[in-house]
From TrEMBL:
Belongs to the CobB/CobQ family. CobQ subfamily. InterPro entries: Class_I_gatase-like, CobQ/CobB/MinD/ParA_Nub-bd_dom, CobQ_GATase1, CobQ_N, CobQ_synth, GATase_3, P-loop_NTPase. Residues 265-450 form the CobB/CobQ-like glutamine amidotransferase domain. The gene is cobQ. Pathway: Cofactor biosynthesis; adenosylcobalamin biosynthesis. HAMAP family: CobQ (MF_00028). One of its GO terms (biological process) is cobalamin biosynthetic process. Catalyzes amidations at positions B, D, E, and G on adenosylcobyrinic A,C-diamide. NH(2) groups are provided by glutamine, and one molecule of ATP is hydrogenolyzed for each amidation. It comes from Desulfonema ishimotonii. This is Cobyric acid synthase. One of its GO terms (molecular function) is catalytic activity.
Amino acid sequence: METEMTASGKAPCIAALGTGSDVGKSIVVTALCRFFLNRGIRVAPYKAQNMSNNSGVTPEGLEMGRAQIVQAEASRIPPHVDMNPILLKPTTDVGCQVVLMGEARENSTALDYHQKKERLFKTACESLDRLRDQHELVVMEGAGSCAEVNLMAGDIVNLRMAEYADAPVILIADIHRGGVFAQIVGTLECLPPEQRDRIAGFIINRFRGDIRLFEDGVRWIEQRTGKKVFGVLPWYTHITIEAEDSVVIESPPAVSPGRLGKPSVAVIRIPHISNFTDFDPLSAIDEIDLFFIEKVQNLSGFAAVILPGSKNTRFDLDWLKTGGWADTLRAYVDNGGHVLGICGGYQLMGQYVHDPHGLEGTPGSEEGVRLLPVETTLKAPKTTTRSRFMWDGTEGTGYEIHMGQTDRLGGSPMFTVLEQNGGTPHNSEDGCVSQNGRVMATYMHGLFDTPAITRRWLECIGLGHIPISDARSGPAARDREYDLLAEHFEQHMDTEALLGLVDKA
Ligand SMILES: NC(=O)CC[C@H](N)C(=O)O
């Protein structure tokens, strides 16, 4: 199918906006991208502004939100910062790092960020225009609820962006949390008439149970609003696509390792966790139980404990120390436990973390958890690389996103870096392994995406007998999941009506 160019000579756009946060916008956009691609349309994803600590690196070595990287993958195109020109990475409750066109620009409080919105809106529009020049369709994603009336004047990602692109809007609602009728009618009610008219219809996400029982509900919504329900998307468990938001791992309960007779691995859910999707390949292994844990508990039942990335290393370090985690971790290691740190988790495990310029809070130094002989200083410029590395003869790929630079004062490096952003690495040593080999850490995110590296790490923690199939991870495996998602989506959507939207756009 071909799309009609708009009068401006640019490709049409459609926008998926939400009735709230975490209603499943990203996954619907991912499904839409693969659906349109399967109909022969060259499609690209776009989200003007993303607030997330879950980011990745483009082939050009620039940083962008992982959700748009996933959507680009579903569109079978390389990710580009135009797909997510503004990324806000929360460091504190009131401040964030502003990543503009893939580069960390500054730390901003919500208030001063607000004052820069107009300039940023222009940058975001230019990105969208470029995407529209290069593709046949752009599927835009909104942020949070599109009807936050107090924020509408400064909106650069929801209806204002849809207006700029003259895009019809699909409103995504989440029936699982209840109140779906009020979500939809209430959202429309909060919008001025011209914006309400822009909403073409609805997708109801996360339906559980017998869908026939909801037919009345669909009729009610259509009669009440005069707009179409494009489809009701049932809950699924047979498809794995990485999650966008760390709310999926919020407030995890205490767990009993080994409860199912399987070896268990714990990831400590630190307050500013970043790139929690690093562990998706581990959760996919049936023979292992992977848990996120937050409350201090005895660790002796775990085969290994992981300290993940952090967007505020010193804050999380203080949290680990004052809450009792630091002592618990040291005792666990003294008793033979295995610990792995990734990025911020690596920094935490050293002797000190220095932040002389206050990049992540007030300037100063903080004593580390002291599990490794390393010392870290946070300083610009930010490192953002796609890397290739070697671990004792096993090759892997990963990506680095950090301000910190870490000096090794003992132990040995974990990886030899072979390549960064397609060129020679700045420093060919990465990470640190303790003398006894049980404590190790690296800057490399995404290391478990390489099955051979996962296998190698499982050997290190005494789980070398667990089979790791190459078919479970990597690009080909993810591509199959996008097809499964599109299939599920098509089964439950009025596909003709969706295609009709593109014609009208
Ligand atoms: N991704 C991370 O874990 C980043 C670690 C730390 N906040 C830094 O910027 O160096």
